[in-house]
Amino acid sequence: MPNRLDPAIGIFLKAKADEAFNKNDFVVALSLYTFIINNDPGNGIHHLNRSLTNLRLQRWSDATKDATKALELCEEKVHKAKAHFRRCQARRELYDISGANEDLEAFLLNGGAPKTASVEAQKLKAAPRSVNEIVLEDVTDVADLFSNTLDLADNTPDAVYEIRPSSGKGLGAFAVKRLQRGDLILAENPIVPVDDPTPYNIVKGFKQLSPKNLARCLLLHNAHPEIGLFEGIYNTNAFSQAGVVLDVARFNHSCSPNARYSYHEPSKQERIFALTDIAEGEQIYVSYLQSRNVYASPRSKRRQTLSSRYDFCCQCTACDDANFEESDRRRQEIGMIWESLPMMIDGRKILMSVVRAITLMREDGYFGDGDDFAVDAAAICAGYSDWASCEYWAKFAYENRAAEFGADHPHAERSRQILDKPRSRENHPQAGLFPGRTFRDIRLPRRM
């Protein structure tokens, strides 16, 4: 069932569609009129507008269908006259001369201008009466027309990914070249930045969009239509701090992602870096869940959160029926390790637990957030004055943050400061507080 548009929002969307039409941006206008019709199908004026837009795009069959629908829904003669005239023009292009003449007569009967009818009559007389091949349907699917023009047109020639259909997931991002861990995949400015996401500010942000960018946003999934059109799209697609970022929103979710998104405050951009090596043609996945909500939570909890926030049931490699029980075992153990670390006293036991947690992550195909544990490991080693081990774990934390967030991200820069001055009490307040001890035998497996 279509969701009824708030009348004020409907008026706003029509104004944006009319603006696009008047600028000859007919694909954008078509997209906006279609969205309005899908959510307010009983208004014949919208079909009249879309019929004229289809005429401009030479989509004769769809122009005919919209004019016919407008005749069913419109009661005023002036609107019926417009619908007959637009269907007359479309039928002429489809070589349905008889039908076009009938529409021209109906146009006059409903008060159409005789001079306009006379010009069209001359065109009908000159139109061919038969052709070898008559195209009865428009060639380009309207969904493809929208996605190709509205979603994909902004991809730069040197982009390392492309947005295209993903089976069962709408659109998705796919690598167009081989990527390595730490490669920057994209850096994108938000299209709807909202510093204070109140309903008023969200609506205000959408209303400031150009018709094209508005049409692009309306193509995004809305998991919360009950709270309002713009609020629903925002709450489904917005990223913390950034707001709505169009291309980033097209990256699909996995609980074992091969990429990671993060907000870079200095540039005001949402960025995505590769977590693993990614083959050309492989789909690029990020996790919509963060930190322990993904790597330390069972499938049931992750699915519940994803369903309530984004309205889908995850079927990723960690969630499919063949693997999820073993994955759950690993992730629940990781969660127990994290919760028990603050209560551990023995430094060796803490470090062995850190190694175990990161190893379990990697075994489960999760290559992010190892720094969560490594930072604690570095601090423990500093407390026992094992500076070689402290440097080892601080370096691990820095290299992982640089790969996942970028070396210029504040997270990575903070880790760099710790790595440069591990003995500083500012970086490690507990440095040297415990009896000297060495943990050089506790390291991660080399093949990590």
Helix content: 40-55%
Report the top-level CATH class of the largest domain: Mainly Beta
State the major sheet.
4 strands, mixed
Spatial strand arrangement across the major sheet:
1-2-9-6
What is the global morphology?
elongated
| CATH superfamily heading of the largest domain | SET domain
What's the number of domains? 3
Strand content: 5-15%
Order of helices and strands: HHHHHHHHEEEHHHEEHEEEEHHHHHHH
Distinct helical segment count: 19
Pfam families: SET (PF00856)
Protein name: SET domain-containing protein
Region (Disordered): 408-436
Domain SET: 159-289
Describe the fold and architecture.
The protein has 448 residues and is α+β, with helices and mostly antiparallel strands. The chain folds into 3 domains: 120 residues, Tetratricopeptide repeat domain (Serine Threonine Protein Phosphatase 5, Tetratricopeptide repeat); 145 residues, Beta-clip-like (Beta Complex), CATH 2.170.270.10; 120 residues, Alpha Horseshoe (Serine Threonine Protein Phosphatase 5, Tetratricopeptide repeat). Helix content is 52%, strand content 9%. The strands form 3 sheets. The protein has a 4-stranded mixed β-sheet, with no helix packed on it. A 3-stranded antiparallel β-sheet has the order 3-8-7. A hairpin with a 4-residue loop joins strand 7 and strand 8. Helix 2 crosses helix 10 and helix 17 runs antiparallel to helix 18. The longest helix has 19 residues. 42% of the residues are buried. About 1% of the residues have low confidence.
